[in-house]
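step 3/5: co-fold with S-adenosylmethionine
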Amino acid sequence: MKSKYLPLDDQLYDYVCAHRTGASDSVLDALRKETESLGDDARMQISREQGSFMTLLVAATGAKTAIEIGTFTGYSSTCIARGLPDNGRLICIDESAEWTAIARRHWSQAGVEHKIELRLGAAIPILQSLDLKPTLDFAFIDADKTEYDAYYELILPRLRANGLILFDNMLWGGKVGVGATTDPSGQAIDALNRKLAQDGRVETVLLPIADGLQLCRKR
Ligand SMILES: C[S@@+](CC[C@H](N)C(=O)[O-])C[C@H]1O[C@@H](n2cnc3c(N)ncnc32)[C@H](O)[C@@H]1O
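step 4/5: write tokens
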């Protein structure tokens, strides 16, 4: 049987990136360049087509209130904020003042800073301090992999029915599902993928976008 998936090479990946709305975007391109100058840490930034996908998803679902765990230099938050209406709100959580200072500058250049509220600190206590009401429409989880399940359990009761949660890096560089994953992050991701697939509270699909995106809808 012919495979129903397509391995990408650099040429095909460039084609994917080139054929989307806003393929050349001066603010996001400048942010990528500045982030690259950070060296190895730059690999934490989400990919271009993932950013476009998230903008589209936020807009298509009419999300007004969103949350992001793991902001870094602001690529994903800029993409989420762009999909929100002008009076929409995005709460960004990150423990790094240094990296989010770069994010702040680019939010301003993208004209989305009025939609974003940055909360600096450890994600779990900040999530615990949020109102326990189902007010969130959209959540993006991209911080400490060993804490993903805790973020999930704290966000789910605060998410409205049909709201979406996206988890990044859920294929963990292709290391999940191919024998025993030994590092704690990989193990946590594998355990969460298994849990989500059986969790009656959500409908979920693991998409092979970038490093793997779990897309969950609250029932
Ligand atoms: C993978 S990066 C996020 C990338 C970002 N979404 C982007 O598009 O560029 C992970 C971020 O999570 C933050 N982080 C890691 N553990 C955290 C924690 N326990 N609480 C808050 N932030 C955390 C780090 O400071 C880092 O900026």
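step 5/5: annotate
The pocket of S-adenosylmethionine is lined by residues 44-46, 70-73, 75-76, 93-96, 99, 122-123, 142-144, 147 (CB under 6 Å).
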